[in-house]
Each structure stands twice: as C-alpha cells, then as structure tokens.
Amino acid sequence: MIVYAEYYFLHNLLANYMILKTTSRIVNNNFSKYRAFTGGFIGALYCMVYFIPSLMFLYNILMKIIFALFIVFISFEYKGIKEYLKILMTFYIVNIFLAGSIFYIVYCTGIGYSKVSLVLIYAIYFIVSSGFFNNFHKIIKMLNVFKDLKNDITVKIEDRKVVFNTLMDTGNLLKDPVSQDPVMIVDVKKLEDVLPQELVYIDYSVMNFKKVDYLMSKLSKTISSRFRVIPYKVVGNEDGLLIGIKADYIEIQGHKKGNIILGLSNLNSDDMNEYDAIINPNFI
C-alpha cells in the first residue's frame, strides 16, 4: 500500500484539530483556533515518524504520553493542575472513542481507514459546530441538578455586590422577550441597598401596567435604563407581569455571566426562608 506523506500529514492535522475542538467544547474551555492549530500541527509532525524508521522509538508508550501532555499544554488555557488534568482526561477519552469507532467500522465493513476516519472527523465537526452539542450539554446539566441544588451567586449592579443563596428550579425558563436574556428570580429585599425604596417595599404578587408606570416615574435615569417589564403566563394568571432589573453580571462557581435580568419578587416568606433567589440549571 502506497502512503503519500503530504496527505498523511494533512489528514492527521485535520483529525487532531477536530479532536482538540471537540475536547474544548466538552470541558467548556475557551477555544483558540491558533492554539488548537499549533497543537494539531505538533501531533501531525509526531505522526510523520511513521516515515522515518530511525525514529520509530518515539512510538513507545512513554513518548506517546509525553506528546499528549505537551499537546494539551500547548492547545488549551487552564487555571491550575486540576483543570489541566480534566482537559487531559477528556482529550484521551475523545481519542479513545474516535480510535475505537474507526477500528470497529473498518473491521465490520472493510472500508479503508482513511475514508472512515474522514467521515468520522466531519461527523464530529458537524456535532461540535451545530447546536446539538450545546443542547445535549444543557440536558446533561438539567439531569444532574441534584448534585448542586443550592449555590451562592454574587450579583453586581453598578458598584454594589449582593450575594444570593439560590435554589435551582428547572421550571424557571423565563426570558426577556426582547433581548432573550435569561431571568433570575430574586427576593427584592436583598436589593434594598441598591434599589430605591419604591421598588423594594411593594407587593409584586399583583402587578399591572398602571403600577409599572408609577414605578417608572419614581426611578432615576441610571436605574430606569436597567428597568425591564417581562410578561409571563402561569396557571391562574394568563397576563402576569414581572419587573426586572438588568445586572452588570452574576458570578457563580467562579465564572462570570453577563446579560442576566433579576426578576423582582417577594420570595422571603415564612415557607421560603432558606433561599432568596431561583435560577435555572442552565446558569451553571
């Protein structure tokens, strides 16, 4: 069998790049095309040892591990050894899955290795590039809400920061109909040092446009620019209105997220004294 070195190199460069891109998506790591290309290029160079018999000693298990460590080191950004090891393990799992799938298909069908691997590479590209992987990831997170039902979330509004003890609720799927920003339901009394009293000491269980107009007239220009009115429907209330305030960002589990709206509510009742905000698992 004739193997052309240039095609072999390009084939491995593409495969390595897609494996790195898939790994990045799985671990939710910032993807840099340049870093991934560099890592893929190094991996493709390593594969060229196949054409140099005097360097075949580089194919032993120890050297393969060293090259894998180096490729992950070059290709990703990470904060500490724990995150690095997480990326490394995911990188190995993706490689094992791809290699095992190729071997199985080649063994069962007799189709050539190059054709099978290219088809799988493009299949991975389609899955990673489409919304399928994102939706799958969201489903996995929703199925694992029992792991972290409660979290502390820091909310920043202008120069103030407020910490909320939040409860996850898969039923909270509210979004601003205009911006499509997700809504986090919060106890308004936690924001009494941030918002004017006109927004803090009122009953949010009954809201209408007349009340909204009154509240708008009491707000400063700074706060009014953050003001949102969000319609919603629940059983027994087909025309509900929720008052929202846009936060600068929220910080949860060490990660900052922008474009979040705080839906103001009176959560801190006698039977709800263990948390003061409700979020959807997709925030995590």
Automatic annotation (TrEMBL):
Source superkingdom: Bacteria
Q: Where is this protein found?
A: Cell membrane
Which residue windows are transmembrane per the record?
34-52, 58-76, 88-107, 113-133
Main subcellular localisation: membrane
Matching entries from InterPro entries are given as: SpoIIGA (IPR005081)
| Record carries keyword Transmembrane | yes
- Keywords recorded for this protein, A-Z: Aspartyl protease, Cell membrane, Hydrolase, Membrane, Protease, Sporulation, Transmembrane, Transmembrane helix
Q: What is its EC number?
A: 3.4.23.-
Q: Which residues form the signal peptide?
A: none
Q: Does the keyword Ligase apply?
A: no
Role of this protein: Probable aspartic protease that is responsible for the proteolytic cleavage of the RNA polymerase sigma E factor (SigE/spoIIGB) to yield the active peptide in the mother cell during sporulation. Responds to a signal from the forespore that is triggered by the extracellular signal protein SpoIIR.
Give the family this protein belongs to, as stated in its UniProt record: Belongs to the peptidase U4 family.
What protein is this chain from? Sporulation sigma-E factor-processing peptidase
